[in-house]
């Protein structure tokens, strides 16, 4: 059993191998939900995670997976800390994570997440667009790369995804929403 | 303990929980697969938010009540949600109109709560705001599609608006609990919130070719003080059955 001499970098490397339970090609680090890692003198490790969506049913599984992975690497004292602010955003998803999503058939977030401070009531309220919200994102098909795509449903198989279809290759696909 | 803050948190949590439970009734019964998925996802977001509000309320109370205790071991008269949210699903226009009225209020309220003097409330609001924004975008879109749709969908959507309108005033009808939170810088004042709500509802109604009922119409009240319509009891009976029959049961 390892007890001492585990570095923070080592813990990050282990966490980079903990798969997201719903999208197993990306890790919890790729997803950007691990915010901080601390290793105390005595070997106690504190991992700070940020939930994706308030009601995401995978969060408990993720927390358990993180703790299990570190224990499997010999860390006896693992503490998980959940932090709500700053709120998780898809902007924290790594570039390699986005590439892995695309390879898996899920279109990654197509633009920067909306800045909360920029959401303000305005005169030009349009259908489907909230006060201050920008235009609909251009989403590229993860199969053929065409941007000739159409939103089928604002919600897909999980809270973090919407459903699109490609008008060129005709494939339906999941889109990881900007959040 | 700060009784006003505890009660205010209960109201936030109860609103989210009761609507979450209502729309989850349509799981597997939505009018289209996409609507079914959307409703269940919105329900899930609201349930997650409920847990955050209840956890804080329970800690503040300090009586050992956790989120489950607050959700499953209170009766109708102890719930503090607005009457709008316990109304039945009706037809899909009723369901979406209720959602739109709530989402509009929720969006502006949660947005204001991100600036709350209570850091924990501000944090929960910041976490919820993007979800709530997405909900409002969707329900506003649906109201436009249904209102500016066929003659039949238009008629049903107008009827839904007319029937539910009297439940919208309660959201802005502040009592001593709300006012104490406004005075403490925890919650937003009623008047600006109401103005924002009316402006957005009017804009969507105009696009949906619907007639917005009068803001000065007579309004229902009582939910926030625990005086509910008969519908809440049935909703709770279904939601709480398992924990009442087998207290403390776990998966």
From TrEMBL, chain A:
Residues 134-177 form the PaaD zinc beta ribbon domain. Transmembrane segments: none annotated. Residues 9-72 form the MIP18 family-like domain. Pfam families: FeS_assembly_P, Zn_ribbon_PaaD. InterPro entries: Fe-S_Maturation_MIP18, FSCA_dom_sf, MIP18-like, PaaD-like, Zn_ribbon_PaaD. PANTHER family: 1,2-PHENYLACETYL-COA EPOXIDASE, SUBUNIT D-RELATED, FE-S PROTEIN MATURATION AUXILIARY FACTOR YITW. This is Phenylacetate-CoA oxygenase subunit PaaJ.
TrEMBL record, chain B:
InterPro entries: Aromatic_CoA_ox/epox, Ferritin-like, Ferritin-like_SF, PaaA_PaaC, PaaC. It holds the Pfam family PaaA_PaaC. One of its GO terms (cellular component) is cytosol. Gene3D superfamilies: 1.20.1260.10. GO terms for biological process: phenylacetate catabolic process. PANTHER family: 1,2-PHENYLACETYL-COA EPOXIDASE, SUBUNIT C, PHENYLACETIC ACID DEGRADATION PROTEIN PAA. This is Phenylacetate-CoA oxygenase subunit PaaC. The lineage of its organism: Bacteria, Pseudomonadati, Pseudomonadota, Betaproteobacteria, Burkholderiales. The gene is paaC.
